Amino acid sequence: MASTTKSSPLSFSLLLIFTLLFLHPIVSSFTIKEATVADFQLGFQNKSLTSRQLVQFYMDEIDRLNLTFNAVIEVNPDALALADAADRERNAAAPGQSLSDLHGIPILLKDNIATKDKMNTTAGSLALLRSVVPRDAGVVVKLRQAGAIILGKASLTEWANFRGKRMPSGWCARSGQGKNPYTSSDPCGSSSGSAIAAAANLAAVTLGTETDGSILCPSSYNAVVGFRPTLGLTSRAGVIPITLRQDTVGPICRTVADAVYVLDAIAGVDSHDAATTEAAKYIPTGGYKQYLKTDGLKGTRLGLLKDAFFNFPTESVENKTYERHFNTLRQRGAVLVDNLDASKFMEVYEDIGTNEILAMTAEFKLAINSYLQTLEVSSVRSLKDLIEFNNKNSDLEKIEQYGQERFLEAEATNGIREKEQEAIQKLADMSRDGFEKIMRENNLDALLASPLSLASSILATGQHPGITVPAGVDGEGLPFGLCFGGLKGSEPTLIKVAYDFEQATKIRRPPPSVTHSSY
Length: 519
What we know:
By secondary structure, the chain is an alpha/beta fold. The chain has a single domain (37-505), classed as Amidase signature (AS) domain (Amidase signature (AS) enzymes, Alpha-Beta Complex), CATH 3.90.1300.10. The chain has helices spanning 9-23, 37-45, 51-69, 79-92, 138-145, 158-161, 192-199, 216-221, 256-266, 275-279, 306-309, 317-331, 342-347, 352-374, 383-392, 394-397, 399-402, 405-411, 418-433, 435-441, 455-462, 491-505; strands at 72-75, 106-110, 149-154, 171-172, 176-177, 205-210, 225-228, 248-253, 301-303, 335-337, 446-449, 466-473, 479-485. The chain has an eleven-stranded mixed β-sheet, with helices on both faces. Strands 4-5 form a two-stranded antiparallel sheet. Helix 3 packs antiparallel against helix 4, helix 14 crosses helix 19 (418-433) and helix 15 (383-392) runs antiparallel to helix 18. The longest helix is centred in the last third of the chain and has 23 residues, at 352-374. The chain starts with 8 loop residues before the first helix and ends in a 14-residue tail after the last helix.
């Protein structure tokens, strides 16, 4: 029998308040500092945030902090207009219509990634200022298709650290010396600006490139997540090259999930990069975010060669921290395979540096000459032109101080001849007899490493993927990470283990000296 009791004015008021608070949330301020892509999308949905507000916040933070950190070379003059367009698209979307995870999200690109817009693409050098690229880089095309907003260009170690042997990490002629927001010192290179910007909350997410360590190292130094994909998983078309045999493009973000959202957006076939056709076989149906699992470590086999990749003093902060993390990995269900012969493994890589540089030097000349020839407008058309430009602008490019030895050595090469072919073959043999062998013979899902060890070269020369996650801070206040490396196409497994480790530890903290506003 239905009740006939009448509601009192007080009870009606309480019901109304309950309804307003819980069924129709009041739009409140949105704290952007350290927010994730998922947080931003929730803010968009509940109307507590717009893309314009998000872009304006980052533009204001760049204005406020970039003179200190030198992480950003230039801001896209169309960024606010792009944000307004994203807001209009979102408001016009049909009920239930699904937009990309990156829709309306601002992203900074390393300044060797081409954009066909009002911005420059210069690799940090004055030589390419006001040059005109033929088209957006392949990854930029995909980002725009996903609805991401290109916020600007991040600084880098000039020419991706392939100009002079004395070049400090993070320096380029266009923006000066990039600084680590935790220590005001070495940010590591060459994707230094992307890592600094992500760490200091100057962008929602960023994109870097790696030939050898240029994503993993700066991500480690700046307490962010860096993901170097399998070679060809992301397009290198429109990226100022060093060598197509090792160059790759990947995300640098504050969380594993954010890095995966970016990877989902940029992975795939590009007709301008043949390597993407072969690597496309590795992309799983449904993309990569399905592997963001908090039980991702359970049952995995992780290789641990302490003497090779974690050679720290017993009483050091790093050693104690890594030992604690190894225990965490075990507690989360991983099997750490540590009965591996590190000395025998490292013997395989005895000459890796010599062979890598030998091959890379000749490949660079061919690659950079080809790239410069594609530019619609440019005052330089060859490596020889770059060398002459630097000589004429020695003070601006700090040639006497930082040199251009790599350029000169590359210019002296004459194609891929017998010694270069031998070096390339030796690198392939090293990967086969070293990393690939130890992974397969021990049925390993990933190999653990410090991002600052030889592991970056092992992954790079073998064209394998790796992801680094914040792991701690050393005695001097410099962050360091834990790297998970895998065989080609093992991104799903690396995502699972990295995400589970991140969620179990939650090490990352924003730079203590950086304060932010909120909307």
